[in-house]
């Protein structure tokens, strides 16, 4: 019998029946150094509003024993234990074992290849706590949790609450943590291992950061940045929400083989891929700041106040994604984060929202399996952009007032979307019911085109637009630059909106200047060529980003060729002054050359990007980023030789250069083996595998596919890099068999939980050696896949379909 997914109807019925008073969770990790098993005893104290009724508790781990009020229970075999004959007050005790700590959900054991030390982490969103211990695994049944963890004596154990009592037990130690505040089960955590840790006091908080011992040097290098950002974020949110983080302890734990980051209350878990052995680039530092502030925002939006059911998932993720950019711009040195957001997540969201997986930000969610499928570009970057528009629409001061009222009113409880809308409507004095329906309950993207007619300027919407405020900027050519001469904010309610105060004779009029709304835009027809020629002359990172996003959307919609878009964005890259934005541009222009351009045009576009990288490398502040870009775009022996000379002893850059040389058919076997021998990074084998993945060689492709896609040896955080090296343009002869093998592994892509499912489905998807018939076969296969795999397949197949169309132009 399969594990059942909790439905909304079941959750509502159980919530009406059950009030959880507390969880006492006893965890034994002492078997992990030599074996796979995690042993748990979950004691759940709860009341029942209808004595005599029955319900069930979730437990997908192996149940060794279970009693309800002293009477034995029998699991039903579907991840549930029936609870018959409930009393008014109940005590449930379940002993369970999770032995699949290598590939299973909820808990993971990782062994550091550097020293053989073992680390273990838990991660439970959306409903994976049930794979480890018995619980009512739904967000609205919040309760205090008391964790008691027995672990090897050399280990440190970290959980949500601070100051545990530690008892020595010979070869083990027992950690007893104080009660947490009322939390949803998915917000709880246990991280354990022989960590290297750093603790500091800041503004009344006790801040801790931890990583595996072999990363101690990197953690020490980055500690000042991480802890400064943590202090700045806590201060910003405390003021913005009129509610300081209510716990002294705030820990961040960087764990091996973890995907992304998870907002556990007071103890955020990160992938330790964020601790980069090579010196981080400006964009990598900015990404760490954004993720840190995203997870921190969840302390308020998700932990202190929790959505009642997963249809309001956006209340968690979209808000955190908005808030991390808002706070980074307002409280840290990363003041161009909205431009990075636009050129990264937002352009992906535009593509998703115009494709087959578009959905309303707020939509009915039947069960938790469906909820796992909407951790996507609509929920995250589109949701964040829509919330920026909402703040623009009501005004930032009134937005802050409404958010403060929301948190004060609902702290430690659960809410629905309407609770948030009510708080903001009350603070702003605006009726937001129409805004809610248009933005949150309606899928799709507005499009605005500029119309110039004599002395008048107007915005034309493609259809009935959502209510929104956006800006139009006027720019005139002054020497070798464009200068903004006017900026007008316009509130749009109709299909045609006059824009007053904008000179119609300006050289360039930029729609959605300052990027205040979520809408694709088009220049007026007479200015199309001006936009493509002049985007790099705009004066700010955000104005250049808006122009670049317009050009990118025109490419994906079939309204611009790859050559046009590539030339435009390469010119913007060459002119960009914001260090953190250079990498997103490099990614976009290189993707255009590799994935979108017809084969005949690919070399010229790639050579143009390589030339810009060589020029940028002359700037010491941009040398690292530029050389990495050249490592992706080097066009032949001359570029590669120059790159090797510039790399010197930079091991990271030498690996990158080897990947490119391998792709171009070079004999890199001996050099790769020598570099692996002297690289002190215990994960360097992944770099060597990445080099091998790029080779146009059938034996290499077969080996890498087996290790990557079948055996899943590569940590999830590294899958994208290895897969990108595997799927290379111009290698269709060697790649064609793996397009077929991808179809064969689709039924297995859901293994390991939500993040691995999304990662493998997306990055293993073949962008080459496929055609329109293949795309249709993928869509047919998607029908039988799990929701998270199905949506990822449909989204990726739509993107590749658009690429194929672009490659066929002028081919």
TrEMBL record:
A Gene Ontology molecular function term of the record: alanyl aminopeptidase activity
Alphabetic keyword roster: Aminopeptidase, Hydrolase, Metal-binding, Metalloprotease, Protease, Zinc
Reaction(s) this enzyme catalyzes, per UniProt: Release of an N-terminal amino acid, Xaa-|-Yaa- from a peptide, amide or arylamide. Xaa is preferably Ala, but may be most amino acids including Pro (slow action). When a terminal hydrophobic residue is followed by a prolyl residue, the two may be released as an intact Xaa-Pro dipeptide
InterPro entries in the cross-refs: Aminopeptidase_N-like_N, Aminopeptidase_N-like_N_sf, ERAP1-like_C_dom, Pept_M1_aminopeptidase, Peptidase_M1, Peptidase_M1_aminopeptidases, Peptidase_M1_dom, Peptidase_M4/M1_CTD_sf
EC supergroup of this enzyme: hydrolase
Family annotation (Pfam families): ERAP1_C, Peptidase_M1, Peptidase_M1_N
This enzyme's EC code(s): 3.4.11.2
Highest taxon, organism lineage: Bacteria
Cofactor: Zn(2+)
Domain Aminopeptidase N-like N-terminal: start-end pairs: 116-186
Every ERAP1-like C-terminal domain range: 509-802
Domain Peptidase M1 membrane alanine aminopeptidase stretches: 230-437
SUPFAM superfamilies (alphabetical): Leukotriene A4 hydrolase N-terminal domain, Metalloproteases ('zincins'), catalytic domain
NCBIfam families found in the cross-reference section: pepN_strep_liv
Family affiliation: Belongs to the peptidase M1 family.
Protein name per Swiss-Prot or TrEMBL: Aminopeptidase N
Source species: Streptomyces sp. 900105755
């Amino acid at each position: 019998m399969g594990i059942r997914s909790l439905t909304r109807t079941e959750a509502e019925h159980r919530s009406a029946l059950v009030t959880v008073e507390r969880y006492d969770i006893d965890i034994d990790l002492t078997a992990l150094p030599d074996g796979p098993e995690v042993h748990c005893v979950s004691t759940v104290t709860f009341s029942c509003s209808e004595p005599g009724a029955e319900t069930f508790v979730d437990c997908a781990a192996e149940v060794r024993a279970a009693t309800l009020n002293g009477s034995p229970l029998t699991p039903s075999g579907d991840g549930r234990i029936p609870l018959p004959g409930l009393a008014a007050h109940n005590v449930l005790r379940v002993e369970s074992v999770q032995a699949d700590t290598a590939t299973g959900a909820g808990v993971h054991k990782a062994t550091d290849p550097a020293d053989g030390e073992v680390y273990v982490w838990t991660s439970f969103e959306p409903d994976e706590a049930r794979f480890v211990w018995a619980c009512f695994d739904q967000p609205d049944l919040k309760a205090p949790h008391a964790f008691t963890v027995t672990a090897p004596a050399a280990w440190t154990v970290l959980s949500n609450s601070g100051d545990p009592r530690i008892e020595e037990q010979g070869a083990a130690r027992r950690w007893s943590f104080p009660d947490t505040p009322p939390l949803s089960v998915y917000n709880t955590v246990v991280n354990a291992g022989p960590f290297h840790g750093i603790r500091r006091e800041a503004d009344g908080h006790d801040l801790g950061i931890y990583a595996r011992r072999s990363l101690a040097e990197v953690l020490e290098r980055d500690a000042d940045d991480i802890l400064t950002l943590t202090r700045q974020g806590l201060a910003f949110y405390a003021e913005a929400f009129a509610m300081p983080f209510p716990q002294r302890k705030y820990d961040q734990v960087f764990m091996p083989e973890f995907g992304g980051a998870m907002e556990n209350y007071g103890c955020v878990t990160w992938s330790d891929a964020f601790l980069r052995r090579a010196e981080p680039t400006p964009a990598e530092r900015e990404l760490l700041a954004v993720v840190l502030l995203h997870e921190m925002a969840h302390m308020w939006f998700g932990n202190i106040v929790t959505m009642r059911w997963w249809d309001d998932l956006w209340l968690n993720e979209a808000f955190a994604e908005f808030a991390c950019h808002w706070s980074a711009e307002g409280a840290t040195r990363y003041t161009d984060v909205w431009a990075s957001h636009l050129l990264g997540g937002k352009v992906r969201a535009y593509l998703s929202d115009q494709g087959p997986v578009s959905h309303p930000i707020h939509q009915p969610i039947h069960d938790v399996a469906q909820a796992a499928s909407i951790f996507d570009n609509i929920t995250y970057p589109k949701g964040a952009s829509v919330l920026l528009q909402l703040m623009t629409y009501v005004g930032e001061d009134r937005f802050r007032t409404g958010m403060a009222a929301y948190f004060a009113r609902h702290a430690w409880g659960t809410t629905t979307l309407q609770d948030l809308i009510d708080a903001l409507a009350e603070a702003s004095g605006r009726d937001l019911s129409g805004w809610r329906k248009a933005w949150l309950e309606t899928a799709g993207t507005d499009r605005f085109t500029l119309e110039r007619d004599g002395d008048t300027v107007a915005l034309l919407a493609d259809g009935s637009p959502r209510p929104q405020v956006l800006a139009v900027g006027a720019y005139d050519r002054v020497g070798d630059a464009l200068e903004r001469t006017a900026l007008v904010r316009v509130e749009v309610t109709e299909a045609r909106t006059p824009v007053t105060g904008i000179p119609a004779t300006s050289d360039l009029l930029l729609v959605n200047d300052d990027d205040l709304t979520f809408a694709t835009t088009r220049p007026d027809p007479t200015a199309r060529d001006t936009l493509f020629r002049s985007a790099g002359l705009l004066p700010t990172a955000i104005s250049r980003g808006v122009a670049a996003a317009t050009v990118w959307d025109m490419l994906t919609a079939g309204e611009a060729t790859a050559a046009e878009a590539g030339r435009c964005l390469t010119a913007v890259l060459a002119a960009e002054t914001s260090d953190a934005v250079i990498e997103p541009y490099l990614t976009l222009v290189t993707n255009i050359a590799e994935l979108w351009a017809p084969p005949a045009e690919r070399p010229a576009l790639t050579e143009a990007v390589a030339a810009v990288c060589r020029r940028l490398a002359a700037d010491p502040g941009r040398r690292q980023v530029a050389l990495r870009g050249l490592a992706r775009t080097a066009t032949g022996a001359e570029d590669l030789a120059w790159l090797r000379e510039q790399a010197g002893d930079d091991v990271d850059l030498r690996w990158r250069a080897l990947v490119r040389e391998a792709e171009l058919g070079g004999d890199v076997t001996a050099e790769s083996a020598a570099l692996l021998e002297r690289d002190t990074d215990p994960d360097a084998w992944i770099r060597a595998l990445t080099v091998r993945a790029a080779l146009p060689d059938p034996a290499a492709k077969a080996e890498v596919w087996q290790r990557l896609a079948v055996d899943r040896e590569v940590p999830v955080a590294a899958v994208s890099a290895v897969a990108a090296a595997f799927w290379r343009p111009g290698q269709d002869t060697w790649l064609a068999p793996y397009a077929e093998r991808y179809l064969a592994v689709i039924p297995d892509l859901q293994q390991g939980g939500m993040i691995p499912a999304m990662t493998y489905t997306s990055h293993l998807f073949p962008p080459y050696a496929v055609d329109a018939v293949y795309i249709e076969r993928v869509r047919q296969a998607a029908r039988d896949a799990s929701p998270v795999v199905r949506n990822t397949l449909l989204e990726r197949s739509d993107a590749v379909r658009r690429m194929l169309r672009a490659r066929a132009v002028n081919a």
